[in-house]
């Protein structure tokens, strides 16, 4: 197994634990009691998931922008999809000159923290995105063609798997969604 494949496999395992591990009761604040109709464990992926390459999408309007990112997330959400946004470790520096955690991006985007992942420094986000999308048979919102990864991840060659778009004059255009 080559180094990028090993990194992708490890990142994929981490994502599976992240989404399927039950939320411990100790993490709930006293005022946040679960309604009786809600299951006690977090039940995997959100409804109608789609992967969003956050580090790529924030550049759709030119310079990296939280506004662009939020408009694309809003557009996807209005289409009844639940975005799982994955960022490079350096994404926060591009937006606010500092490292940003999943919690920081959750506040910035108004998405639940469990739907955001900031990969660790030194981990290639592309490999994590492709591994996660492959494992769960999900589409990816990005303008990246992932050509360097086509040998390891055949999904990049599948028609309709990568959804390209742009953000111009306040409008999101997303092909194939």
From TrEMBL:
<feature type="compositionally biased region" description="Basic residues">
    <location>
        <begin position="26"/>
        <end position="44"/>
    </location>
</feature>
<protein>
    <submittedName>
        <fullName>Zc3h12a-like Ribonuclease NYN domain-containing protein</fullName>
    </submittedName>
</protein>
<feature type="domain" description="RNase NYN">
    <location>
        <begin position="47"/>
        <end position="167"/>
    </location>
</feature>
<keyword id="KW-0472">Membrane</keyword>
<keyword id="KW-0812">Transmembrane</keyword>
<dbReference type="InterPro" id="IPR021869">
    <property type="entry name" value="RNase_Zc3h12_NYN"/>
</dbReference>
<dbReference type="Pfam" id="PF11977">
    <property type="entry name" value="RNase_Zc3h12a"/>
</dbReference>
<feature type="transmembrane region" description="Helical">
    <location>
        <begin position="6"/>
        <end position="24"/>
    </location>
</feature>
<feature type="region of interest" description="Disordered">
    <location>
        <begin position="26"/>
        <end position="48"/>
    </location>
</feature>
<keyword id="KW-1133">Transmembrane helix</keyword>
